[in-house]
Amino acid sequence: IKTIGVLTSGGDAPGMNAAIRAIVRKSLSNGIKVKGIKKGFNGLLNEEIVDMDARSVSDTIQRGGTVLYTARCTEFRTLEGQQKGAEICRKHGIDGLVVIGGDGSFAGAQKLSALGINTIGVPGTIDLDIACTDYTIGFDTAVNTAMEAIDKVRDTSTSHERCSIIEVMGRNAGYIALWCGIANGAEDILLPEKYNHDEQQLINNIINNRKKGKKHHIVINAEGIGHSEAMARRIEAATGIETRATILGHMQRGGSPTCRDRVYASIMGAYAADLLAQGKSNRVVGYKNGAYVDFDIDEALAMQKGINDYEFTVSRLLAM
Ligand code: F6P
Predict the structure, then answer these.
(1) CB burial class (10 A; 0-12, 13-18, 19+) of residue 26?
(2) For the range 75-79, what are the long-range contacts, defined as Cβ-Cβ under 8 Å and sequence gap of 24 or more?
(3) Residues annotated in the binding site for ADP, as ranges?
(4) d(CA 259, CA 199)
(5) What's the CA gap between 108 and 37, in Å, rounded?
(6) Which residues does 191 contact at the CB level (< 8 Å), separation at least 6?
(7) Residues 195, 196, 199, 201, CA torsion sign
(8) SS3 for 62?
(9) What's the gap in Å between 171 CA and the centre of ligand 1?
(10) What are the φ/ψ torsions at residue 170 (nearest 5 degrees)?
């Protein structure tokens, strides 16, 4: 391997820049040239490819977003798109590629591997929904951003003795909601993996907590459940307690990455660069049980992950 490419794909995540920086600099130290591919697989198909050196990634480790930009690419789901992508890699002398993104992006990486481009995935998503790894780049920053925002909503919720429904991101996964639920001491957490849609039970809980003397009632609602505005209207009608909905939205994806995100992104990025230097392909980097590891992409995509039952049970108990 003489030259590799790096791209970010899917939703951006704080820490992606730290991963790019590590991939560039570790590859250079391995004697391998690096090209940056802009705007994910879209940019590959449009040949938005630039040479990168150590200075290209100066002053980026502390920045949110991705300096390579990102996109979701429908054309790359087709065989024609994948073949075109592999040909463009060959045309530019790219014989290895690191894809930083989520499961969808790894599916693209898997196809490129099958077409002869050595490809490695690095888990970058705020959702934490990649089964082969305990950690995904961006989760820590996102969950801290959400936690701080929820603390602020809680202040005003208490002052007005309201119920507040706060919707957090996570697509179909409830990890951000669970972690905020524990960290913010939320009275209720609605997770796609756990919520039985028994709204009467939720309403009873809100009324009982008011009787117990609680001044606010924070419901953290995962994006996978959604419909927070309508839920707030129904709860207010049923309980007589003023209820407001706040959807945190894309602010959760921005901001300077936390120390944890910078460190894990740096090590995972370097690890991916080393896998390519060793001639490996079709692998995903992960952090599992305290160690940096890598898995075959096919195996990684087949793995299942769920909410930790003990964490969920304790979170409910502590909200008494
Ligand atoms: O995967 C990250 C994520 O922020 C999810 O939590 C959310 O469902 C989705 O991306 C939002 O995507 P978009 O930026 O396209 O609105």
Answers:
(1) buried
(2) 75/41, 75/42, 75/45, 76/41, 76/42, 76/44, 76/45, 76/108, 76/111, 77/108
(3) 21-25, 154, 185-187, 212, 214-216
(4) 39
(5) 14
(6) 174, 177, 178, 222, 224, 225, 307, 312
(7) negative
(8) coil
(9) 6
(10) 145, 5
In the block, residue with structure tokens 């780049």:
137
ipTM of the modeled complex:
0.98
Backbone angles phi, psi at 312, to 5 degrees: -65, -45
Q: Count the alpha carbons within 13 Å of 16 in the hemisphere toward its beta carbon.
A: 31
Protein residue with its CA nearest to atom 9 in ligand 1 = 171
CA–CA gap between residue 220 and residue 245 (Å, rounded): 10
Instruction: Give the pLDDT of residue 56.
Output: 98
The residue from 127, 140, 188, 294 that is catalytic is 127
Residues of the chain with pLDDT under 70: none
Residue 248 · residue 167 · CB < 8 Å: yes
Binding residue ranges: 11, 21-25, 72-73, 102-105, 125-127, 154, 162, 169-171, 185-187, 212, 214-216, 223, 244, 250-253
Burial 254-280 (b: 16+ CB within 10 A, else e): ebebbeebbebbbbbbbbbbbbbbeeb
Instruction: Give Dmax over CA atoms of the chain in angstroms.
Output: 70
pLDDT in tens, 2-28: 999 999 999 999 999 999 999 999 999
Residues with Cβ within 8 Å of residue 162, at least 6 apart in sequence: 156, 216, 217, 241, 242, 243, 244
- Token pair belonging to 303: 């793995």
Beta 96-101 vs 3-8: how paired, if at all?
Answer: parallel
pTM of the model: 0.97
